[in-house]
Write a structure and sequence with these properties.
Layout: H1 3-32, E1 36-41, H2 48-60, E2 64-69, H3 71-76, H4 79-86, E3 91-93, H5 100-103, E4 107-112, H6 115-122, H7 129-139, E5 143-147, H8 156-161, H9 168-183, E6 187-189, H10 194-205, E7 237-238, H11 240-243, E8 251-254, E9 259-260, H12 262-271, E10 274-277
Parallel strand pairs: 1-2, 1-4, 2-3, 4-5, 5-6, 7-9, 8-10
Helix pairs in contact: 2-10, 6-9
Length: 279
């Protein structure tokens, strides 16, 4: 191997190592950032204690949580009680809330969903701040997670209180409201499982980059054209950066005598990319 070809291989390898290091550090910082969330309290009391404990735990784990209380939640729960749980002053009633409280949030939480709010969201009724904010968040594609103890007909506390008294059509209507919310993309959970479900779902959807087994799955910006850039088919050294725009299962044409670096070859194998050499 002549000196020019060897130098080209070394330069390409250095670029690949640097790109991998940058990608790894980007993923680390992405996963270390706090997730911003807005919690809407709608007034339900069933399951309130476990969700309050869950919110405290989430905040301790680095979630940045604001809270907005509906009028009924303000009377039944109280702003001060939520401030104490979150150790935060970013708690207010719905008529004092700034739209940025939920528009800039990555995650929308409904720690205690009421029958009233579930029915309004299910039927796209936006006649007050909280259901309107939840509906707007769904329209914006935000992740919404709700604890349903306060409105689920199968909730054990409700069954114990109204054993055998709930009319089947009424219970069916409550179930349909929850089914509609689920179809809209709302993640439904119990109060007891609220904290675990929020952590798991947030990790899966809001930190999806962190699920990558290899930092090279991060899509880097394509290199800016330079005097020495050329199509892959005409390159003597084909590196990792040359393959990163190729979709899984795709193919890349390279020259008959082109040298494919080891990192590029490994990446192609992982992504099912076929490297086709010209004849």
């Amino acid at each position: 191997m002549d000196e020019i070809k060897l130098r080209a291989i070394v330069e390409e390898t250095v670029r690949e190592v640097m790109a991998r290091a940058v990608a790894t550090e980007t993923l680390r910082r992405y996963n270390a950032r706090p997730i911003s969330a807005t919690a809407f309290f709608t007034g339900a009391l069933l399951g309130l204690k476990p969700v309050m404990d869950a919110l405290r735990g989430l905040q301790n784990d680095g979630f940045s949580i604001r809270a907005v209380l509906s009028k009924s939640a303000g009377k039944l729960i109280g702003v001060d009680a939520v401030k104490e749980v979150l150790s935060s002053e970013e708690v207010c009633l719905e008529d004092q809330a700034d739209r940025e409280a939920w528009e800039k949030a990555e995650l929308i939480l409904i720690p205690a969903l009421t029958v009233n709010t579930a029915a309004k969201v299910a039927h796209c009724i936006c006649d007050s701040v909280v259901p309107n904010a939840i509906s707007k968040s769904l329209l914006a594609g935000k992740l919404v997670i709700a604890a349903t103890d306060g409105c689920c007909p199968a909730c054990m506390q409700r069954l114990e209180k109204y054993a055998g008294k709930i009319p089947h059509p009424y219970a069916a209507a409550l179930s349909r409201n929850l089914a509609a919310m689920r179809e809209y993309g709302v993640v439904l959970t119990s109060a007891e499982d609220f904290g675990r479900r929020v952590r798991r779902t947030a990790a899966e959807r809001l930190r999806s980059l962190g699920a990558a087994k290899d930092a090279t799955t991060l899509r880097l910006s394509p290199p800016q054209p330079s005097a020495r850039s050329s199509p892959v088919a005409g390159k003597r050294i084909v590196g990792l950066a040359d393959l990163m725009g190729t979709p899984p299962g795709g193919s890349v044409s390279v020259g008959k005598k082109a040298i494919v670096t080891q990192l590029a070859g490994d990446y192609a194998n992982r992504r099912g990319i076929t490297i086709v050499r010209s004849k």
